[in-house]
Write a structure and sequence with these properties.
By secondary structure, this protein is α/β, with parallel strands linked by helices. It is built from 20 helices and 14 strands. The strands form 3 sheets. A 6-stranded mixed beta sheet has the order 8-7-6-9-11-10, sandwiched between helices. A 5-stranded mixed beta sheet has the order 3-2-1-4-5, with helices on both faces.
Length: about 550
């Protein structure tokens, strides 16, 4: 099975590597295969694959992804994997979006893909989807220090991003997509005037909040440029080019279309039946089914933002997934260096939002990663990704106090789980929330619903990392930094872990920290089947 986590050290040391990114959307499954040149750093697209599977097709009564949609998606993903293997791809990145996020059986679908196809899928939030779309666009366009509004219309949601070359100023994901609105709001063909009026009003109402926020984030005098990405805009541009130029530009990248042109196209679409739309040059059968809703969404967005023209960018979510992988693996250090800290910045943002004592949080996080590093290779073999999850949970473990001190560990779980932590997958956020939840009181138990639903490997991570976090919390019991450092020595023969504590003040006996450590260490001792001995440097023991 292809490695879905991190490539080997040997591969990472080479100048190039081949990566595949799979975007599992509501309407289609897209894959892009790229060759990454680590010396630039940059990537070159060497193959693309697209399959319209309509994963967003739901069972009417349950809202579950239908068996037929799952079957189509599994077949498509098998083809993607076969193609990736034919290119000797070293690493597959896969992300699922709106349809999988919302379906009650979305996680079941993810586990089924893992078991039957051998591809690990990351379930990402709408905000994370928007951030990666921004990265994809930034990898393919020069913003020239000007603000840009990125509009990405998918099958189930529309992402609107206000960004410049330095950072995304505003990220949004709204549940208006071409497939969703076609299924829910269009029943006539051609669409009648009443349905069209309601569709337009519904889109305006749904987009009002993110559009207002975009306007608020613009600086006085700034006039943003519009960028369109993904299938709807690509189809509209292709149709426009065929009608005006008589040929399809190659590539489509950089092609511009005016709002008036788009308005004329919408007027044309709503007057045609499905069969008549299919016959338009550049229109596929599947796209003809949903083009009315998709075109209305983009026209209303441009109108509300007073954008006169829109430029197509052929890079979007899947290319952004590649950029994100490069950032996380330290391959980009200059132009996009700010994004390497997106996770850290997001954690601190949530900490500030819930009034976390950052001095205390950083002290606990410092102890947690120090214990993690010192015990690596002896008591555990977790890697850099798990270390980052532990650090994040340590910073945020006390955020539940924002609601109430009573049972604050449970409140911490809820706040973290529903926070907009950018840069993390849904499963990583779930893991962080659980690690924080078990820093005190009860240990993880199968009767705890959120924990029990997780796969075995994630439950194991949570057990191990939360046990380390318990020790770290005990080491700063008084929140005054009484312990300056901790040195670990593991005696395998006698199954003992000696914690040599260095106090900040040699006259402080740190009795409360030692007492709390003695109380909290039991979970760690039971997990690793050892005894913990703690001594202070000042005791000279």
């Amino acid at each position: 099975m292809l490695n879905s986590n991190f490539p080997s050290k040997k591969r990472m040391s080479e100048e190039t590597c081949t990566i595949a990114a799979i975007d599992i959307g509501t309407n289609s499954i897209h894959m892009v295969i790229v060759e990454v040149d680590k010396t630039l750093p940059a990537f070159t697209i060497i193959s693309r694959e697209k399959d319209t599977v309509r994963l967003g097709e739901r069972e009417p009564k349950t809202g579950n992804l239908s068996e037929a949609a799952i079957k189509r998606s599994l077949a498509s993903l098998r083809r993607c994997k076969d193609l990736a293997e034919s290119f000797n791809v070293e690493h597959i990145i896969a992300a699922a979006t709106s349809a999988t996020r919302e379906a009650p059986n979305g996680l079941d679908f993810i586990w089924q893909v893992q078991a039957e196809v051998g591809i690990t899928i990351n379930l990402i939030s709408g905000y994370e989807e928007a951030r990666r779309i921004y990265l994809g666009v930034l990898s393919g366009m020069d913003f020239q220090e000007k603000p840009h509004v990125i509009i990405d219309i998918g099958g189930g949601s529309t992402e609107i991003v206000l960004a410049d070359s330095q950072e995304p100023r505003f990220l949004s994901s709204t549940k208006v997509g071409a497939v969703r609105l076609t299924n829910e709001l269009i029943s006539t063909d051609p669409i009648d005037e009443k349905e069209l009026t309601y569709l337009q009003a519904y889109v305006r109402g749904m987009l009002e909040r993110p559009i207002d926020e975009v306007k608020r984030k613009l600086k006085p005098g700034e006039i943003p440029q519009a960028v369109g990405t993904s299938g709807t805009i690509e189809t509209l541009v292709a149709l426009h080019a065929m009608q005006t130029l008589g040929e399809l530009p190659s590539p489509l990248q950089g092609y511009q279309m005016s709002r008036q042109d788009l308005k004329d196209m919408v007027k044309q679409f709503v007057s045609l039946t499905y069969e008549e739309r299919v016959n338009l040059s550049g229109m596929s059968e599947k796209r003809a089914e949903i083009i009315v809703a998709g075109a209305v969404i983009i026209l209303e967005a441009m109108t509300m933002l007073n954008l006169e023209t829109i430029t197509i960018c052929e890079r979007a979510l899947r290319e952004g997934m590649i950029v994100d992988w490069m950032l996380n693996n330290g391959l980009i250090e200059n132009r996009l260096s700010f994004q390497t800290e997106v996770r850290q910045r997001s954690v601190y943002k949530i900490a500030r939002k819930y009034k976390v004592d950052l001095g205390y949080g950083e002290q606990v996080a410092g102890f947690a990663v120090s214990l993690f590093d010192q015990l690596l290779g002896t008591l555990h073999n977790w890697g850099k990704p798990e270390r980052e999850l532990l650090w994040s949970a340590a910073i945020l473990h006390n955020c539940g106090v924002y609601i109430s001190h009573s049972s604050h560990h449970k409140h911490s779980y809820y706040l973290i789980r529903h926070a907009e932590l950018l840069g993390f997958t849904e499963m990583e956020i779930e893991t962080i929330a659980n690690i924080a939840r078990y820093h005190r009181k009860s240990t993880p138990k199968k009767k705890h619903t959120a924990y029990s639903k997780l796969p075995d490997n994630y439950r194991k991570q949570i057990k191990h990392l939360s046990a380390i976090l318990r020790l770290a919390v005990a080491l700063d019991r008084r929140n005054i930094g009484a312990i300056k450092d901790v040195h670990c020595k593991y005696d395998q023969e006698y199954q003992k872990l000696h914690l040599h504590l260095i106090p900040s003040n040699t006259k402080d006996d740190c009795s409360l920290e030692l007492w709390n450590l003695d109380y909290k260490k039991v979970v760690f001792e039971d997990l690793y089947d050892l005894k913990i001995m703690a001594t202070l440097e000042s005791n000279n023991v």
